[in-house]
Every structure is written in C-alpha cells, then in structure tokens.
Amino acid sequence: MGRLTRAEVQEMNRRKVLEAAREEFGERGFRDAKIDRIAERAGLTRGAVYSNFPGKRALYFAVLADAAGRVVVTPPPGSVDTVREALGALARGRVARFPLSGEESAENPARDLPSVVLADAQTRAPYAQLLKLDAIVLGLALEGLAGRGRKRLVPVAETVLTLLHGADQLAAAAPGFGDPFQVVAACEQLGEVALEGAAGEWAPPHLPFVGKARPVDEAWAPPVVRDALRGEAARLGEDGVVAVLGLHRLEAVEEAVRVAVPAGEVVTAVLVTGEPGELGPLARLTVAELGVAMRQAYPPGVWPAVRVVHDESGAVAAAAGVSAVSDATEVAVRVRGGRIVARAEGRGAGYAAASAGVG
Q: Does residue 58 lie in a domain region?
C-alpha cells in the first residue's frame, strides 16, 4: 500500500476524533467530556483534535451531524397520499428513535443538545432559524399533498415539530413518561384540524420596506456542491433563485419560494455563517435531520422545489458576488440562461429577486 496523502491522513484523523468524541460524549455527556480524553481515545494529540475542530461544542455538533447523516431511513409502508398520512409517518420515524429506557438515554450523545444550544445566544438564534427552515420545507411538502387551493401549512409543521421535539426531550429526561402512539395520533390529528379550519394565507413582505432587484448581466460560474437535503448534486446552473442567507435569516427562504416555485423555478438556499467552525456543524446537523424526516414521510413527487446548500467556505456566495458573509447576510440573485440577470440585497432580497422573473 502506498503512502497516504496529507488530505487522506487529515480525513483519517478526523474520523478517529469523531468516533472517540462520540464515545466520550455518550459515556460522560457534554459537560463532563474532556478534549484530552477524546485525544487519548483517538490516539492523537490534543493539538490534532483542535486542528480539526475549534472547540468542544463544535466537535459535539459535528458528532451529532455525522450520526444524523448515517441514519438508515425506512420508507413508510404503502403510499403516503394525504397530510394525515405524512404527519403520521413523520411522527413514527421520530418516535422510533426515542430512548426506551434510562440506560439508552444515558448513552445517547444527543441528550444534551437542548442544554448546549440553550447555554449561549450565539447558538440559540441560529438554531431557531434552522428549525424555521425545517418547518418551511416540511410545510411546503404538506401543501403539495393537500393539492390545489391548498392552505399555508407551514404553521402546522411548526406545531408538529414543537410536539415532537418536546416529546423527544421528555423521553430522554423521563424515560417511560407518555405514550409514543398518542404522540403519533396527535400529529395526525393536527393535519386534519388544520385542513378543516380557516384558510391560512401567506402574506408577502411589506413592499415599502423591500427594495426591487437590480437588473444585471453577470457571469454565473458556481462551484460543484451538494444539495444537503437530498444528498445529491445541486444543479445550480438551472434557472431559478439563489438566496445566500445567514443563519439569522433562514426564514426568508419562504419569501422566494412563494413567488418562484409557482412559476416553475427552483429556489436554492445557500446557508452561510460568520462562525463556520462553530455553527456550520449545527446547520449540518439540523438539515441532515430534516432530510431524514423528508425521506421518512414524503414521496419524492411532493418534495418542494427547494435545495439547501452548506457554504462554509463561502465559495457559492463569492460566485454570487457576495465577498463577505455574516449570520445576517441576505442576498439573492436570479439565474437565467446560465447568467445572473437580477440581484437584490437586504431584507426581502429573495422575494425581490424572485419577483424580477415574474410577469
């Protein structure tokens, strides 16, 4: 066997650190886990751990993201044709991963996620927006199942996620409390209640506070990237809207979707952050879990025309003309015929860029 390249050695060491950290966090929890013990378990130096991850919290998020990316999804038996069936499949997939005993809960590294996120405002705001993104994608898929004349079902998805996250935390803190089957039934009922109630409507952003997109004619040569939602290549050369969004502005993706998707175009949400080492893994974790939920609950035909791309290096943002990013970034471009034909910046940028291609 030939000598490993530097990149291969780095990847091998990264895998060693992740495996050692998974064991350490599982046995001791986040608070009592030590970087020195993780390095010892991995057979590496403390410096080698920090050369791959900037700190314990970033490493913790990376461990959970890696685990979420390895979840084997079992599609629901039979077809999923209604909102009720989709919410039931979504809930069953989630409760199947709840710990069944105190021992299982104690060995689960994810048990500390709520407290780790809650401990710092730097993680709370991005996590809230990441869950908003989850609800938007899940709600749009529900609307696809509901058919023409559909109501806005994003609030339903938010409520279901609230119920499932709360039940998950209780299962970890108080194993045996509550009935998972009742959780599933409640999620199914939420869909029926929403469809029977008053129609919900999406309201566009207040136009006086949203500028118009500027017409431009610029080269569009994005790098090769993957759609983190589907786990496949993201074809960024297609006509559509590319919205570069900081982790504090992810809910703005809905503004672009409501205009562009009915016109037959795709919206790509490019996730950027001013703290890629720390918050990048948290974003990867949340989107990976969203991908699992989508595969468990929805047939491919109703997945919304939304792609999610992680851009921790800033390469996609740079291709879109965004030279510096932060968690407040909100820039959108409209792509047509392989070129950028419109650009918008600031609040409502996605809506403005999408509207530039309508009418």
A: no
